[in-house]
Design goal:
Elements: H1 3-29, E1 37-39, E2 42-44, E3 49-55, H2 60-68, E4 77-84, E5 90-93, E6 105-108, H3 113-147
Helix pairs in contact: 1-3
């Protein structure tokens, strides 16, 4: 493992967490969007999006074998997909709403603001932890350079 590996790991995590925060922000912004699209003349609400993270390596054993053999690998994390949450929309009775169906129900997005705030706190803390790890790596490299003087 070389010195820049820790930088690459932290950078991949920072990128992934930033995208996760962007997706969460989009979910919060569209929490009341009852007309994200129209299908067959019927308004379809916004559907919550979720980020799926996966390691850059396919398995731990593959990573271990590559490290033991001295091969340089791109460790870290990546966004493997952004998926739609398939949970049901929330029906709200409001017959005066322009997107109400024949029974007077408006289907609201499946976005729960409390859940999104918890996810945002989690993503922010992960981002901060990776910034701390990056700064620690940078500090170690700087100390090693000072020793060499």
């Amino acid at each position: 493992m070389n010195i820049s590996s820790s930088f690459n790991i932290s950078a991949s995590a920072l990128t992934a967490q930033r995208l996760r925060m962007d997706v969460i922000s989009s979910n919060v912004a569209n929490a009341e969007s009852t007309r994200a699209s129209v299908v067959n003349g019927q308004a379809v609400p916004y559907r919550r999006k979720m980020v799926v993270l996966s390691p850059n390596e396919s398995s731990f054993s593959e990573l271990l074998q590559n490290q033991m053999s001295g091969q340089s690998t791109a460790a870290g994390v990546k966004v493997s997909a952004i998926k739609d949450d398939q949970s049901a929309f929330k029906p709200v009775y409001n017959p005066t709403h322009p997107d109400a169906d024949a029974k007077g129900y408006v289907y609201m997005p499946n976005v729960d603001i409390a859940k999104e705030m918890i996810d945002m706190i989690s993503a922010t803390r992960s981002y901060e932890a990776n910034v701390t790890a990056l700064n620690a790596s940078k500090s170690m490299v700087m100390k090693a350079l000072e020793i060499g003087k």
